[in-house]
Amino acid sequence: MTIELLLENRTTGQIWDIAPCVQEILLTSSRRGKAGTLEFLLVANHISYVEGDKVRLSVDGQVLFLGWVFTKYRDHNAIITTLCYDQIRYLNAKSSYLFYNRTASDMIAEIGKDMQLKLGELQSTGYVFPSLVSWNQNCLTLLEGALQETEQHTGEGYVLTDSPQGLCLHRAKDWMFPQSLGTGSILDYTYTTDIDQQTFNQIVVARKDRDGSMVEVMKENGDTQTKWGTLRLYQTVTQEVNDAQMTQQADALLAQYNRRLRQVRLTALGMVGLQAGQTIWIDIPNLGDMNLHQYVTLEQVVHQFSGGVHLMKLDFYVTGKE
Asked: Over 90: is that where the pLDDT of 62 sits?
């Protein structure tokens, strides 16, 4: 395994490969709502760098991260812990937007250009918002909300990531990792089931009309209400959303949330290039109340490079019969 960690001083233009001086590298990606991060532990030496300097990580010739230094911590042993973010970090800025007849992918392109960010391939999301008003809101929160609402209307999930080519929007079901993961590579795991965090068996979608009247659409599942009690999710929509669209949204939400949440967290031998948001085939027999043999979408991926060893931690949800 060949690791290259380039650090560019943006003032002088000098570039160092600091990989030989680094004790540990942590590369983290999340499916939703967070920028990609790179954290490394460096023994203090002659290398001079500051916040805003550019960082690039490559493993076996594949660029895995491109970003900028944001935070440095130095301890009494002269070990400097450095935290870097990719472009998505800049979407945490607040702004105000008024969109008419635009898709979520259109919004990403417009906000990205406003923020002077590099844009890569953005998959068309299809669903057109009649209007979307955002006042003094975090731009990443706005975009993730638009993507989640698109998924509720279309059933299609999307993942916003950064890459050396720029901001990219992937259709989740098409963003497949070409390798599988099984017990031969898995070192440890935990399996959690619950109905406490993200489980709902009664969905209410409500709209307040211009005359002040309320229109509500309810969808529910009696079988799981008998087992778990009534777990309600209440959502409001704008006046532009019609009754048929409200019904479609309620059906989609019930299909998404009317289940036990099954979460797996595992540690495994590293696979270069695997990212949160990708879909990968995983085999874990005798996983509690089920045998896991299915494709899963990764919620978070943490790659650890230390002492010539590459490990990774994966966090994901699985589906099973109730």
From this structure: yes
What is the separation of C-alpha 234 from the centre of its chain, rounded to a whole number of angstroms? Answer: 24
The whole-number pLDDT of residue 44 equals 76
Name the one residue in this structure whose structure tokens are 């899963």: 296
Domain C-terminal end among 33, 59, 85: 85
For 275-284, b/e burial (b = at least 16 CB within 10 A) is: bbbbbbebbb
Q: What is the mean pLDDT of residues 43-52?
A: 85
The answer to whether the beta carbons of residues 10 and 53 sit under 8 Å apart is yes
Same-domain check for residues 120 and 152: yes
CB atoms within 10 A of CB 214: 9
Question: By residue range, what is the domain housing residue 70?
Answer: 3-85
> Do 252 and 270 fall within a single domain?
no
Contact status, residue 37 vs residue 85, Cβ threshold 8 Å: yes
Tokens 């975090």 -> residue: 138
Would you state the pLDDT for residue 45?
77
Q: Report the run of H or E that residue 304 belongs to, with start and end.
A: strand 290-306
Q: What is the DSSP string of 64-76?
A: EEEEEEEEEEE-T
Q: Specify whether 235 is located in the same domain as 114.
A: no
pTM over 0.85: yes
Rg (CA), the chain: 22
Residue 285 buriedness (CB in 10 A; 0-12 / 13-18 / 19+): exposed
- Write the CATH number for 159: 3.55.50.10
120 with 215, same domain: the answer is no
Which among 39, 34, 316 has a CA at the least distance from the CA of 161? 34
Helix or strand (DSSP H, E) at 305: strand 290-306
Same domain for 103 and 58:
no
Pair (159, 116) in one structural domain: yes
Q: Please give the tally of structural domains in the chain.
A: 4
